[in-house]
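Q: Structure tokens for this one, please.
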Amino acid sequence: MKRYVKSVSSASNQDKVLLAKDGEWELWQPLTYEGSISLAEYGGEKAKWITTHPGGDAYWNWYSDRGPLYVFINTGNPRRKYQSCPGAESWLHNFNDKDLGKFSLLRFLGQHKPFAEALDLHIERSSKFFVMDSELFQFSEVASLGGKVITESRPVVVESYLESSDVTLPKGTKLYREAFANNQNLQHVSLPKGTNVAQMAFTNCKSLKAVDLPSDLQTLEWNCFQNCKSLTEIVIPDSVVEIKNSAFLGCKSLRSVDLPSGLIDMYPKCFSGCSSLEEIVIPDSVTDISDDTFKGCKNLTVFIHTDEFDDIIEACGVKEIVHDF
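A: Here is the predicted structure, written as tokens:
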């Protein structure tokens, strides 16, 4: 069984250790099953925590293997007891073993500063941004306990892109599914390093003409640019290894695409319906081209060294396949 010991000024015995005091309240850490029982029975009022189950120490072992347990006791009222095991996401259990949740734990620690310090609680403003429904959000607070992030709360709108034609996102912004979907005003978007491209992120952005993709992007998700009918060209970074289902489906104005040299997979319909696409060079790294990848690309000449995928490409109705170039 694992034991977790903090550096404290006083310790009661080998089974439990006192971490901090705040008025009538005390913060203890049980180190053994026996220590957990003794704290549950403090003052003659035994808490009903599962970790002190009389049938044995199995529950204690399960929780203590995931991280230290903590017990909050009010010495003036022995029925006011709480147990917490943040490592097992067991946040704050009352006397009757009801889980009050992480926000109750944060409020309790906020009211008892010595306990917050003992458990290394930090609440800071977030540096994380995300886009949902063409609006840029930022979490107002991030709470960590002992170095582990346990909650991100109260997202607030930083900027709205509903009326914007030209958008540059902050570094590392997360795009939620359909982040800019159906935005009819967006014409140009720049996605800095660390930004993902989620499923359907720009679906039906019919005014979108140009996209600057992040240099460390690895995957273009399903339908991410579907029906972007004004998109004329796109350079896909060398870091991308997958272009997934219907990524550019229905991009009727797309004339030029530079595929990355390390591309591996081209999923079904990823360029289907790109009727203006005239030339595309398939890198030698590609190991899989799926059915309908270029369906409806009637003006397309495909440059590819191998003839391995000829049947699949020809079935899409392309103009020509060139092997010697």
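A few notes: The CA atoms of residues 128 and 294 lie 37 Å apart. Confidence is low (pLDDT under 50) at residues 1-11.
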